[in-house]
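pinned: reference chain
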Amino acid sequence: MRLFSYADKYGSARTGVLTAGGLLTGGQLEPYLRVPLRTVSDPTTVVLDDDRRGDVGRAARRARKAGAPLRDPAKRYPLPAVWEPQKVVCIGHNYAEHVREGGRAIPSRPLMFAKFANAIIADRESIVQPPGTHALDLEVELGVVIKQRARRVAPEAAMACVGGYVVVNDVSARDWQGNAQALAEGQKGDGQWLRAKGSDTFLPVGPVLVTPDELDPSEGLRLRSWIIRDGTEIPMQDGTTRDLLFDVPHLISLISQEITLEPGDLVITGTPAGVGVFRDPPLFLRPGDRVHCEIEGIGSVENPVVDWTEDPRQGD
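pinned: its structure tokens
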């Protein structure tokens, strides 16, 4: 099932189902549901409950059979498919070609770091370049939504904990991160990645959540990203999940040995080669750009980049 998160004309959060190239809205599904979808805050709520997921799936089939017209999802205001995870566990150095482009050795275990819900924004919302950084970069990544508690699970049992997949952009301030290619003479990074990865707006999340019965990353999903600058598309990343060093079940197992994953948590699985910091010369985001990240079988997330002085949230 492909769930779509959006705001209705009143600004209320709704969840619909994408099917046959169109959208069945929450309102179209309501007559066929045992529990109204208006009680659902985001698609994560659907995949966390097997009964709810089955109810929504049956409602979509009945609505289609009854002739419900499909709507254009592009005409809806998208919301993040995941809103407020308790934890966002991120994985670095997990694509072989990305490790090589950075001049590193292949790791024996994945690098882990964290982001927080403050970083999450929707498709079309602005990535804000904070004061003090000049080296924003993009990272298209596969996000994994956890549907049940995972504590010290074995790899062979880990997929039972997966509720679905989303596309995300792990925005990174490379100078704060300490990448030599982003530092001026005498400049140093933070020594850790919290500010470089966890600043506000640094985690765009697409509106589509795809359940595991429709998508298998082990088959090789294509991930791509672009910078759109002055109307010109600049291709950046173009990789596949076949290049993952540690696959989804092994990541969940490894993380859960020390960090209990709870329903609704988000695991971000790493990025393929092609990021801006390792270009020659480096290519960083700047205000006025748009950033497009896309994963085969899921969808995309696209966001403008603005300077902090133009932050649309300043009046909030």
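why pinned: The CA atoms of residues 161 and 310 lie 40 Å apart. The chain has two domains: 2-78, 88-310.
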